[in-house]
Amino acid sequence: MKYLIAGLGNIGPEYAFTRHNAGFMVLDRLAAQHDFKFSFEKLAFVAEWKYKGRHIYFIKPTTYMNLSGKAIRYYMDQYKVATENTLTIVDELQLPFGTLRIKPKGSHGGHNGLKNIEELLGTTEYPKLRFGIGNNFPRGRQVDYVLKPFSNEEMAELPIILDKAGDMVTSFCTLGIQSTMNNYNQ
């Protein structure tokens, strides 16, 4: 069984701990815990992990958030991974900070990275793990908010949330989306 896990974010040190990079952070935490390394490849940083009989490919697109679909489509084709075995990890303004929700399908909800993926896959029916970042920003300041680092209070809570998100990724690959939804959705 092959899986493709795409953590969304923006490359560059100025984006490292921003809310928009929640997807990158989840994959970096998993890599540190399970000792696999990312290498720079075409359109993404890529890692492979064999876990419980599964071959799991991880990507952190280098296309910047708004063109994430280009890397996802490329690696789905490259590794011949079915849409239902592709999980996209993305920051979500509509969920309170720290809330994690996995679903087998759903709209982009105004998220430009998801909008691009939807366009390039031609469907909204692909699994997503939404990482709640909250929406504590003044009207019209959404871009500033998502590109700003997590607060000190949020940073203190992040390790536990990132661990849970990592558990959700491994559950998705081993138990499937339905069991993962039942066991983890808040």
- List low-pLDDT spans: none
Got a strand count?
7
Tell me the β content. 15-25%
Class from secondary-structure proportions = alpha/beta
Please bin the fraction of helical residues: 25-40%
Main pleated-sheet profile: 7 strands, mixed
User: What's the end-to-end separation, in Å?
Assistant: 28 Å
Describe the global form. globular
Give the count of helical stretches.
6
Radius of gyration over C-alpha positions, nearest whole angstrom: 15 Å
Biggest sheet: strand arrangement: 2-3-4-1-5-7-6
Order of helices and strands: EHEEEHEEHEHHH
* pLDDT averaged over residues: 96
SSE blueprint:
Layout lengths: L1 E6 L14 H13 L4 E3 L2 E8 L2 E8 L6 H12 L6 E7 L7 E4 L8 H10 L6 E5 L9 H5 L5 H23 L2 H8 L2
Parallel strand pairs: 1-4, 1-5, 5-7
Antiparallel strand pairs: 2-3, 3-4, 6-7
Structure characteristics:
alpha/beta; 6 helices; 7 strands; 22% strand; globular; Pept_tRNA_hydro_sf; Pept_tRNA_hydro_CS; EC 3.1.1.29; hydrolase; cytoplasm
Q: Could you explain the architecture of this structure?
A:
The chain has helices spanning 22-34, 68-79, 112-121, 142-146, 152-174, 177-184, and strands at 2-7, 39-41, 44-51, 54-61, 86-92, 100-103, 128-132. The protein contains 6 helices and 7 strands, in the order βαβββαββαβααα. It is globular and about 45 Å long. Helix 1 (22-34) packs across helix 5. It is an alpha/beta fold and 186 residues long. A 7-stranded mixed beta sheet has the order 2-3-4-1-5-7-6, with helices on both faces. The longest helix is centred in the last third of the chain and has 23 residues, at 152-174. Strand 3 (44-51) and strand 4 (54-61) form a beta hairpin. This is Peptidyl-tRNA hydrolase. The record marks 91 as: Stabilizes the basic form of H active site to accept a proton. Belongs to the PTH family. It comes from Dyadobacter fermentans. Keywords: Cytoplasm, Hydrolase, RNA-binding, tRNA-binding.
